[in-house]
């Protein structure tokens, strides 16, 4: 699904988010039944309950789960965050600008894991709290990241495919270093897709426009289907394409038809 929200633009929570898509209009986690997403709100107001959400320098978000009193449990909104990938739900993060004011869209994120920490509940009593590690999922930059600094993996295509399939079946769990886990998983998928393309764009069927300093034909891994469409780590819906085709797939007036053609091409190979 292509969401109508633009990163760093502000929106009226009820009118722009809940009226068209549904979901609970109060609280930090909103789980609309009929929309393929989970809305997460962080910012103003949480510190009064003991929550301590914060963004890290790499863009990841430390997000305290749902539950104002007593031990937090992996139910309701917390479970929705944990299981969002298996459920085909995008995680959309918004920052509250002021109490009762507009919210700013921070982008799409993925749950990379969680920790259990001792925090105070609404009564000031210490209790175990769920703290999620949410990692941003940029549309384009991450799909090309690392190609200028990494050597192509020296492994048979079948081995790369096995790693990519294993990566796609990843389930988040408690972890102290979740961003690395997510990025390595994305790299396994990307490495296989680029090896499958073998230096030829799967969009325009032309050779890669140049070769990197490490000898890798420069193509980018394009996720044809969003998480809410059944992806993005399914190798049947990731294509190795040139930068020009990549922009066309995201921004072209014919992007829907073009992505359908990419899907057919990749499925034929798989």
Helix coverage percent: 25-40%
Number of domains: 2
The shape is globular
Tell how many strands the DSSP assignment holds: 11
In short:
The protein has 270 residues and is α+β, with helices and mostly antiparallel strands.
Structure, explained:
It is built from seven helices and eleven strands. 36% of the residues are buried. It has two domains: 10-136, PUA domain-like (Roll), CATH 2.30.280; 141-269, no CATH class. Helix 6 crosses helix 7 (255-269). The protein is globular and about 60 Å long. Helices cover 28% and strands 23% of the residues. Residues 176-180 have low confidence and may be disordered. It is α+β, with helices and mostly antiparallel strands. Strands 1, 2, 3, 4, 5, 6, 7, 8 and 9 form a nine-stranded mixed β-sheet that branches. Strands 10-11 form a two-stranded antiparallel sheet. Strand 2 (29-30) and strand 3 (37-43) form a beta hairpin.
SSE map:
Blueprint: E1 10-11, H1 13-21, E2 29-30, E3 37-43, E4 54-55, E5 61-64, H2 76-82, E6 90-96, E7 103-120, E8 126-136, H3 141-144, H4 157-168, E9 173-174, H5 178-197, E10 220-223, E11 238-241, H6 243-251, H7 255-269
Brief descriptors of the model:
single chain; 270 residues; alpha+beta; PUA domain-like; 2 domains; 9-stranded mixed sheet; globular
């Amino acid at each position: 699904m292509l969401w109508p929200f633009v990163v760093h633009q502000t929106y009226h929570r009820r009118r722009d988010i809940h009226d068209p898509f549904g979901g609970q209009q109060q609280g930090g986690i909103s789980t609309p039944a009929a929309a393929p997403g989970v809305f997460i709100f962080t910012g103003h107001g949480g510190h009064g309950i003991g929550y301590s959400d914060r963004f890290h320098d790499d863009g990841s978000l430390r997000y305290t789960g749902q539950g104002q009193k007593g031990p937090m449990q992996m139910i309701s909104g917390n479970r929705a965050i944990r299981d969002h990938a298996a459920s085909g739900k995008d995680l959309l993060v918004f920052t509250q600008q002021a109490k009762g004011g507009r919210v700013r869209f921070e982008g799409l994120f993925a749950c990379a894991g969680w920790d259990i920490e001792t925090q105070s509940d609404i009564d000031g009593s210490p209790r175990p709290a769920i703290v999620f590690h949410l990692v941003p999922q940029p549309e384009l930059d991450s799909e090309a990241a690392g190609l200028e600094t990494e050597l192509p993996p020296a492994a048979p295509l079948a081995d790369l495919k096995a790693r990519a399939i294993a990566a796609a079946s990843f389930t988040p769990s408690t972890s102290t270093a979740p961003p690395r886990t997510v990025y390595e998983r994305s790299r396994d998928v990307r490495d296989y897709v680029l090896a499958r393309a073998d230096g030829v764009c799967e969009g325009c069927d032309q050779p890669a426009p140049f070769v990197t300093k490490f000898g890798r034909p420069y193509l980018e891994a394009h996720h044809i289907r969003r998480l809410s469409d059944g992806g993005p780590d399914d190798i049947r819906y990731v294509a190795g394409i040139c930068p020009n085709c990549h922009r066309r797939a995201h921004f072209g007036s014919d992007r829907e038809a073009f992505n359908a053609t990419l899907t057919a091409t990749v499925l034929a190979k798989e």
